[in-house]
Amino acid sequence: MQITYRTGNKNDVTRIAQLDYIASDGAVEYLFNGLIEGVSALQLLTSGLEQDIEPHTFRQCIVADSGEKVIGMALSYPASYHGITDELTNFLPPDRLEHFRELYSSRVEGSYFLDAMCVDEKHRGKGIGKSLLNKTKEKAKSDGYSQLSLIVFADNLAAITLYKQQGFKVVKKISLEPHALIPHQGGCLLMVCEV
């Protein structure tokens, strides 16, 4: 199968949102569920990406395109954007935002931040995640950054193994209380690598 890696475009928004939703592994559902009557968390995520407002926009994604559909994506941007914004404060209920306060307050200053990465389940184990990481490193470097950072659930051993193989090191453990919608234990890890 021939895979092309390219910048996301508006036609990719629905698929990027689906993969972003999967990558969040419950976090998007926890944050956005029930905020607007009749609108799902996935629909809200899709709408946000579609609005094309930095940094959460399809333009900040590298997608893996099989020719038939997008089978992977990596959303990244300068780490200075990772944090609790006025927009988040005005949109999310205070208790939901508080649950993620430490995560949103954790970043490697001066780095590029990999916000989300996901490969379609049917296409995992074929090197697509590694290629997306390498393309994201290239993007960070071309934008003038010397480090790439990310946050991963501490019990996501497959992802952590990949990241360590690609040169990432843990720089901080982040507390995140378990919740029924977020099926993870042990909080998160802030990781960084040189690009």
Protein described:
With 195 residues, the chain is of the alpha+beta class. It has helices spanning 13-24, 27-32, 41-50, 86-91, 94-99, 101-104, 128-142, 157-165, and strands at residues 4-7, 61-65, 70-78, 112-119, 147-153, 169-174, 188-194. Helix 1 crosses helix 3 (41-50). The two termini are 28 Å apart.
Features:
alpha+beta; seven-stranded mixed sheet; 8 helices; single chain; 7 strands; globular; 195 residues
Structure, briefly:
This protein has 195 residues and is of the alpha+beta class. Helix content is 35%, strand content 24%.
Secondary-structure blueprint:
Elements: E1 4-7, H1 13-24, H2 27-32, H3 41-50, E2 61-65, E3 70-78, H4 86-91, H5 94-99, H6 101-104, E4 112-119, H7 128-142, E5 147-153, H8 157-165, E6 169-174, E7 188-194
Parallel strand pairs: 4-5
Antiparallel strand pairs: 1-2, 2-3, 3-4, 5-7, 6-7
